[in-house]
Amino acid sequence: MDSRRLYHGRMLDQIHSRTSALSAGLTQLHEACGPSLAQISARLTQTLLTEGRILTCGVGQQSALAQMFASQLNHKLGRERPALPAYCLNTDAVLMSSIASSSSGSEIYAHQLRAHAQPQDLLVILCATGSESACLKALSAAHDREIGCIVISDEDGGQLSALINHEDQELRLPARDAGELLPLQLVCITLLSELIEHQLFG
């Protein structure tokens, strides 16, 4: 019985530690990244107003967030409204498998961007470390197609930071591991969806 109580206490300590870190991260997100989020939302909105599309991608768990962001825009978040042209590059499993079979997975997004991206589009890359090969190749392909990129990553930024050009925007979140980063990225895409809806539909 004592061991069960001890284990339960440790679980509560872990919950307290993680939720405290998340609360601190949200405060830092507001203070350090609030203006950048507002700028990014305005740029995404302008892309839609000029008949561009929002393209999203991510690797690993961030691929789910990329799909969620495109879904929020294409369908809705909190209100009934027209669909917005957003497309996630990691939804076609057959295509991605075909590309990966000849490129070790690094070309899964770059290949699609070279085929379909238009200059008025905007690419949103969600990544964990900023050094994932598929994300690096996607950014390079976006530059080749002359489309801008929004990169949302951890506080380090990784190798992507060195490739960012004047057409891109980088949002480094105050997070050092996946447990801190994923919730903050989820908050970011939700806020961006809300801000876009507000700017377009009041």
Name some characteristics of this structure.
single chain; 202 residues; alpha/beta; Rossmann fold; 11% strand
Q: Would you summarize the structure shown here?
A:
The protein has helices at residues 2-49, 61-74, 93-100, 110-116, 133-144, 160-163, 178-201, and strands spanning 54-58, 86-88, 122-126, 148-153, 169-172. The protein is an alpha/beta fold.
Can you put this structure into words, describing what you see?
- The protein has about 200 residues and is an alpha/beta fold.
- The chain has a single domain, classed as Glucose-6-phosphate isomerase like protein, domain 1 (Rossmann fold, 3-Layer(aba) Sandwich), CATH 3.40.50.
- The chain has 7 helices and 5 strands; from the N terminus they run H-E-H-E-H-H-E-H-E-H-E-H.
- It has a 5-stranded parallel beta sheet, sandwiched between helices.
- Helix 1 packs parallel to helix 7.
- The longest helix is centred in the N-terminal third of the chain and has 48 residues, at about 1-50.
- The mean pLDDT is about 90.
Note the topology.
Blueprint: H1 2-49, E1 54-58, H2 61-74, E2 86-88, H3 93-100, H4 110-116, E3 122-126, H5 133-144, E4 148-153, H6 160-163, E5 169-172, H7 178-201
Parallel strand pairs: 1-2, 1-3, 3-4, 4-5
